Structure formats: C-alpha cells, structure tokens
Amino acid sequence: MLLGLLGVVVAVYWPRVAHAGFAWDDWEKAAEATFWSAFGPFDAREAAYQPGLAALLPLPHLAFGDHPSLHLALASVLGVAMAFCVYLVLRELAVPAPISAAISVLALLFPWSDSVRLWATAGASQVSVSLLLIGVALALRGLTEPTSSGSRSRRWSLVAYVLSMLTYPVTPALVGASTLLYRLRVPWRRAWEWGRQDLVAAVLIGIYVRLATTKPAQSVGDQLDHAWTILEEWAALLAHAVMPFGDVPPGVVWACAAGVALAGWAALRRDDADSASNDRLTVGLALVAVGLAASLLAYVILVPAEAKYRPLAPGLYNRVGIAAGPGVATLVAGLAVTGVALLLRRGASRLAIDLAAAAVVTAIGVGWAGLVRDDEALWRRAAIESERVLAALNDPRLDIPDDAVVLTVGHPHSVAPGVPVFGASFDLDAAIKLRRGGEAPRAYPLDVPLACGPRRAVPIDSAIRDLPSPAYGALRIVDIERRRVWRVRSQADCRRLGPLVAGRIQTESVITTLLPAS
Length: 518
Fold this sequence. Notes:
mainly alpha; four-stranded mixed sheet; elongated; 2 domains; single chain; 21 helices
C-alpha cells in the first residue's frame, strides 16, 4: 500500500518538487531558523496556541536549509503518511482492502487542501491529521481488546488526540464526535464511555486555543454569516468532488447522489438480493454517512475563524480543509460502492463489487489529480516570479546598500488568488536577508500609491499589514521588471516620482496559460 501511495505522489506532485520554490511563510520560517531570536528558531507567538506546529516548523529548515525541493519532498512524504493512516483506520473498520486503498489515494489527492503538499510550511500540518487518525485506529482496536490491552490503547489514543489538536487545531470537532464512529464497532454505552473522554479533551483544548490564539475574534453576526458560507461551499465542494469533470450544477449532483443513497437503503429494506450485494450496500451506506458527517465537522470548526477560511478558499488558504479530505474521500467512495452494489444485485461476488467500485473511485481520482496539476502549475509560476524579484534586487548594477529601505514595484504579488509571489511585509524582507547572508536592505512589496509627508513616504491604505513608512534618504523604490532604482531623498522627489510609481504597481497577475506539466 505504501509503495502505491508513493507512486501516486511521485506521479502527481513531482513537478512541484522538481521546480520548487519558497512562498509566503516559507521565507520567514527559513530566516527564523537561520538568524535566531531570543527563542532560537521557534516562533513564541505561534507556540501559544499551536505548540506542536511551532515545534515542527523549524525542523525542516534546520535539516535542509535553503533547499525548497527537499522541503516539498518532505511535504509529499507527510501526505503519504497521512493517507496510509486513513487506510489503517478503514481496515480497523473492516472496510474491504480495495476500497480502503482507493479512499486513501483520494485523501492524498484531495485538491481542496492541496496547498499542504504544494507549499512547504503547510506540509507540517498534515502531522495533526495523521495523529488524529492514529488515535482513531488505536481507539477502535482498544474497544475490542481485553481490558488491559484496551486500557493501554485508550491512553495512547487520548495522547494522539491531544497532540493532534495542539499541533494544528482543525481536529477538535472530529475528536469530540468520536462516539459516533466508535458506535460502528461497539454498543452505544461502550462507545459513549470512551467518546465522552474525547469530548472533554476536545472542549478543553478548544477553549484553550480560543483564549491563546493571536487570530482576531469575530462577532456573533460575522460568525453566523461565515457559518452559512461554509455550509454553502461545503455543499458545492461535495458536488464537485463527486463529479470533478465538466460543469454539472451542484443541485443535479446532489439529487443523483441522494437518489443512489436512497435506492441503496430501500434495497436493503427489501432484502431481495444476494448476501454479497447486501453486504456491500451496508458498507457503502455506512461510508456515505461517515464521510458526510466527518467532512462537515472538519469545516464546522472554521466558523469562529476569519472569513477567508472556508471550504473553497483558494491557494494557501485551502490548507484549513486538510481534516476534511479523508471524509470527502470516504463519502465519494461510499457512493461508488452503493451504486455498484445496486447495479450488480445478483451473481456478483464481494471482490467483484469491491474492484468495480475501486475502478469508479480511481476514475474520480483522475479528475482530482487534474485539479491538483492545475494548482501545481500556478505554484510553479509563483516560484519563477519570486526568483525574478530576488534576482533583480541582488543585481549589483542597482547598487542597493544594506541600510536602505526598499519598496518594490513592477512585479505581481500573486499569480492567482492565494498563490503569492511576494505580497506580505515579512516574506520579501526575509528572502533578501537569506540571499545576502544576513546584512541586507529591508525590502517590501508596494501595493498602493505613496503619500508624501514632510519627512517620510506613507503607503495609503495598504492591504499589506505592517508595511513601513520609510524616511527620505534611506528609501529606494525598485522597478523589478525594468531593473531600475529610484532614490527618494526628499518630499519633492517623492511627489515627482509618485505618478510613475503608482503606474508601476501590480498586485496580481492573471495567469491564462499554465506551465507544462513537467
């Protein structure tokens, strides 16, 4: 199984690894690991609410240095580990091996959180979902083991859950609802006996994260609006996941999916088919129910978060859907198993139904892989644009001194929504320090015109948080595309250059032609 998952990850994600580049937080994390602060390479602010991730993020930079291909290869390997954990959980639930394997492959491909394998920093968040799945597998095994062995499994499953929630806090809702999953193996009383412990842990850690987070709090009204957006996008995402080809309206897909599930339930009620078909109908409908609940719970946790975190968020923001991938994959496979079992009502063996359902899931996986490759091409384009910016800033002909403050124009800040080049106050500044070995000018992308004050230039209503207002004399404005630098010595210089600079600001480049696949 592991070899198969490795084959998939090489086939789909290798172009990104081969043409790698850092983006967004990658540069900041690399700089923190190179130029230590009082807390060493660790981010103390992040450690307050997700200590596991704060501990993990510097490690690849300490091990691999400034080699993005190695970082992205690690992200792919972590994806394989997560997908294999999905397989282990499904086998604990007695899901047939061919179907479990197909679901694991879908979980590895899931294009609605593919930034965790296309963006190095996000790759570490896969550890959180792997820990969750390990905890589930241990709990499922412990529920049916003798008391002593079961107690050990219980303790370790709780440890895995807690570590998962403290690594990347997108899993508490899933942990809190574990009773529903345990019920598939044991009676309600036994399931609740363990599930209530998980619920207490999830609630306590959820409260801790809410109190410790540095993310802005949302009003009740904003949270209600966000909840509705999440529900709408979750429904649209599921429809696209079931039918990734063409432009079929979500309502049509939902109607067909509901028809398959209801037909399967009715067929089980009639009990007029052979045992193999009925057995697989039971498996398929159980997978549909588990996948539906798990995917929704994975997104419900986002309700208190900022509006940009939603199921169909583009680019780097889709990382928050990482815990939904296994659930959506399970739902899709469940519909495939149910549909095949309905078609092969008589005379087909269990293995024949399993293989036919796995073939259907594989076809859907091809569609998912195509979506990933489209996203991958955008990330590779962003890496090329980033290198163009850094090459210009390091051009000796521009003669930019280390004590300068640089504002850059003439380059895109992103190649598509959520796929950044340089568009933050921390990424370009960290990147130029890394390329120059420490002593370097402070450098920031400029996204708005400048107001020319008496002593300094002030960006007007910048969307880039913490963009500085540089003093005259130190300020350089660099046009990346034209390889030109202007020194701004006074208010008069600023006013003279203002219209020219404003005309060279480019915040986003719309990519109409994708790069080749390799």
